[in-house]
Amino acid sequence: MATSFWAGKAAKYSISVLVFLSLAVSGASAAEPRQARDELKAFPEAPAGQQRHVIFLAKRSDEDARRVGVIVGRTELVDCNRHTFGSQLEKRTVDGWGYDYYVVTGVGVVASTRMACPDNTKKKTFVRSSDEPLLRYNSRLPLVVFAPVDVEIRYRIWRAGRERTTD
């Protein structure tokens, strides 16, 4: 009899803890999108045929030693050759705010090395643009990139090594 009494109390307590934790987690996740929306108010919406990509960078103590490598690409059906295409990443400024954002322009057709493939099979793969700029790392503002709908934006964080002297 005593076992069922304590089992009931433990179940009631654990349910209360679960409800509290779920409310706390949902409140934290609800605050994050609202803050993100507030930070993006200054930036324009994506025009027709374009998509807005937003990268939020983590705050770091050594931001001057870091860069963001922006990779523009798209998924294509390709053979065994090396493939690439041309594009540019234009820097623009939000009027009245002074915030920078980037627009992918001049997206060209896919070029390849055109060597003979032994099996003539094709596979879907991510084809990168020939231009992969390194941008300033700034965690205080989101990195906003506008690109055509069929273009994907990926990124890498680069960190500088220690400074060295010349011989």
UniProtKB/TrEMBL annotation:
<dbReference type="InterPro" id="IPR005658">
    <property type="entry name" value="Prot_inh_ecotin"/>
</dbReference>
<feature type="signal peptide">
    <location>
        <begin position="1"/>
        <end position="30"/>
    </location>
</feature>
<keyword id="KW-0732">Signal</keyword>
<comment type="similarity">
    <text>Belongs to the protease inhibitor I11 (ecotin) family.</text>
</comment>
<dbReference type="GO" id="GO:0004867">
    <property type="term" value="F:serine-type endopeptidase inhibitor activity"/>
</dbReference>
<protein>
    <submittedName>
        <fullName>Ecotin</fullName>
    </submittedName>
</protein>
<dbReference type="InterPro" id="IPR036198">
    <property type="entry name" value="Ecotin_sf"/>
</dbReference>
<dbReference type="Pfam" id="PF03974">
    <property type="entry name" value="Ecotin"/>
</dbReference>
